[in-house]
Design brief:
mainly alpha, two-stranded antiparallel ribbon, 6 helices, 4 strands, globular
Amino acid sequence: MSQPYGHRPVSEEIPLGSNASVALEPRGEGFVASIPLAQLALLGERPDQRLQVACDAYGRTVAAIREVLADIEQLKSRRTPIPARKMWELGDAVVNLGAELEENSMEMEGLNDHLVRDLGINAKRVGTIVTFRRHLPVQEMIPESLGWSQCEKQARKVAEELRAAWPIATKS
């Protein structure tokens, strides 16, 4: 018996565990999501709802990052060192976005490129910040007194050292 067009089991078309590759474009005050047609089945029976989740999640992430960037600009204007914890917040927003998309069977290829486009921040800097955050799952691992300038050039190494120094009982 044949299945209706577009309703073949996902396992026949795309390997299980795969996520749809979503792209987002700015439109008005929000974003519009798209995915390759061949991946539509990955989003289940209501792909429009899943794509809206992607738009909403990305919009929230961009707004949160803009707030943190505004805080950073205020610190710079007062010539106050930028805390490493503040940069961790930026990375955390990006990591959480990735997790939310994955929970909804999606991923965003070129996420850093999207953020560069929508926030006007340096691509290499985004990568450094996300690397720092990925190696430090808990913000409390970062001493409040640690400035970003002490981390930026060797973010991964500093993050690994901070993680290694964290009490063993609370390591994840």
